[in-house]
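Why does residue order matter? Because the sequence determines the fold. Keep that principle in mind as you read this record.
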Amino acid sequence: MKSNYIWCSLLLILLTSCARQRNLVYFSDLKAQSDNISTIVNDGEPKILKNDVLSIDVNSTSPESNVMFAANPTSVNMNGFYEKQGYRVNASGRIKFPVLGEVKVEGLTIAQAQSVVEQELNRYVVNSIVNIKFMNFRVTVIGEVNHPSTFTIPNEKINLLEALGLAGDMTPYGKRENVLLIREIDGKRTMVRVNLNHQNVLNSPYFYLKQNDILYIEPDKAKSIEYSHSSRSMPLIVATISAIAVLATAFLHR
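Structure:
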């Protein structure tokens, strides 16, 4: 029986030694004892892109003007309720706004777009106040996270760590050193690898996410092995080897 235990112990050591240790610490290259660390902060303010959908509200001292410009396009949803459709940025980077006609907004920040629309409205309205919001600012986090999903971002600004926080953070199997960011602009898809074990990601132009970005957290090879067909049959193999060892030990001691 003693030799049986030795065989089983050796087998377990062999199986567990195959798994590579992972660095589960974000920004692990930071010193444990460090002074104040400063980085150049990219504010990540999003720009308006083609196919974005904008909610635009206009307020002024004139009730008539408010009525004229107040209504965002609406439709009736499947439950019979009216919901805002917003103003979609067309292929030429413009929105079609009541009275004003087409207004160029592509490439502008929200603040800049508000200023442009206000200037156009000043020809018809005195002291207008324009409030613009994204209606389609979403990011998707999938792969080795605890709660993969698509998240709508109300404040229109989010960074990599905040997105991972919404998704419940990575599982221990997630490759923190090889996060894949997928971004599409003007029909061109860009795929970038980001290393969250290094502090220089804080200065990366990809630290702040843009609307419709996708984060994919790739699983470590250890998980692939764990969930492979051969690994699922491993308990049966171990049991078979143990049974053979027991029989061999009993036979040798007869």
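The two ends are 13 Å apart (CA to CA).
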